[in-house]
Amino acid sequence: MADDIFVSVDCETSGPFPGRHALLAVGAVCIVARGDAWEAVGDYYDEWAPPRGAEEDPAATRVHGLDLVRLRAEGTPLPRAADTFAAWVAALVPGRRVFVGYNAAFDWAFVLHAFGAAGVTNPFHHVPLDLKAAIWGLHGGAWRTGSNTEALEHATGRALLERPGLRPHHALDDARAQADLLVRVLEHLGARAGEGR
């Protein structure tokens, strides 16, 4: 696991269906092993211009508040945005890059579709890591009930970090919060492995 480079990724989109709806914002935080500890070593954020014809689901817009008209004028066009994001991932420290999301299926689908639509090679290992499933695996609770963050606090015996000024449904802030959760999971797994020695 020490050779893995974990990249916490969060996306904001214009709706739930890649291709039909557009990827609007991407936030990412890189987590690497430093000796026995895990730490964030860099982050990425960009707002992407929705392609012509991309639909907007009003429910999604209410969640993130991004303005498609503004993004069409000011956002980074898809080919350049996908290329820049892939280059940022590729420039990280050596190791296998693992895409991590809290509900990775959603974010992974949009990022993978964007790379494909832009003709950009996917820089991530082919299997994303779903943080929600990892936490569920640690505590073994019911999938649909209870809070995964509360379960993680219970499993590790430590309160999660508070991030003052956290913007709800902002891709970079959410990627940072996910990175905090990932570090907690990795530390807990490392402690459990140490107990078995």
What does this structure look like?
With 197 residues, the chain is an alpha/beta fold. The chain has one domain: Nucleotidyltransferase, domain 5. Helices cover 43% and strands 21% of the residues. The chain contains seven helices and five strands; from the N terminus they run E-E-E-H-H-H-E-H-E-H-H-H. The protein has helices at residues 58-64, 68-74, 78-90, 104-118, 131-139, 148-156, 171-195, and strands at residues 4-13, 23-34, 37-47, 96-101, 129-130. It has a five-stranded mixed sheet with strand order 3-2-1-4-5. A hairpin with a 2-residue loop joins strand 2 (23-34) and strand 3 (37-47). Helix 3 (78-90) packs across helix 4 (104-118) and helix 5 crosses helix 6. The model has no long low-confidence stretch (mean pLDDT 87).
Entry summary:
The chain is of the alpha/beta class. The protein is built from seven helices and five strands. A five-stranded mixed beta sheet has the order 3-2-1-4-5.
Helicity range: 40-55%
- Residue runs with pLDDT of under 50 for 5 or more positions: none
Shape: globular
H/E series, N to C? EEEHHHEHEHHH
| Largest sheet geometry | 5 strands, mixed
Number of helices: 7
CATH architecture label: 2-Layer Sandwich
β-strand percent reads 15-25%
Structural class: alpha/beta
CATH class: Alpha Beta
- Radius of gyration over all CA atoms, rounded: 17 Å
Distance between termini? Answer: 17 Å
The largest sheet has its strands arranged as 3-2-1-4-5
CATH topology: Nucleotidyltransferase, domain 5
Fourth CATH level, the homologous superfamily: Ribonuclease H-like superfamily/Ribonuclease H
- Count the E strands: 5
**Number of individual domains:** 1
Mean pLDDT: 87
